[in-house]
Amino acid sequence: MRLFLLPKMLRIEEHRVQIVVRDNNVDQALKVLKKKMQREGTIREMKRRKFYEKPSERKQRQKAEAVRRARKLAMKRAKAEGLVLKRR
User: Fold this and answer.
1) What is the span of the domain harbouring residue 11?
2) How many angstroms separate the Cα of 52 from the Cα of each of 46, 56, 59?
3) Shortest CA distance to 61 belongs to which of 76, 45, 72, 73?
4) Environment class of residue 66 by beta-carbon count within 10 Å: exposed (0-12), middle (13-18) or buried (19+)?
5) Are residues 30 and 40 in the same domain?
6) Is the whole model's pTM more than 0.85, yes or no?
7) Strand locations in 8-84, DSSP E?
8) What does the alpha-carbon distance between residue 36 and residue 19 come to, in Å, rounded to a whole number?
9) Fewest C-beta in 10 Å: which of 18, 49, 62, 73?
C-alpha cells in the first residue's frame, strides 16, 4: 500500500500492543492493556470516531487542543524557571 498517495484522513496507522499474561492473571493483563491504551490515546480516539465529526467541529477541537498544549507547555516552562509556585 502506498501511504503517500492517500489523503491524511484515510491513512492507516497500525499500532500493535502486546501484553504478556503471567500465571493466568487475566485481570492484571487487562489492567496493563487499558493503561497502555489510555497512554497512547487509543480510547480517546475510539470515542471521538464513534460519531461523525463535521470539518468545522474538527477544526474547532484541534484549535482547542493546540491552545491546551501551548498553555501546558508555558506553565511547565514557568515552573522550571521558578516563576510559578508548584502546587501541592
Assistant:
1) 7-51
2) 12, 12, 14
3) 45
4) exposed
5) yes
6) no
7) none
8) 9
9) 18
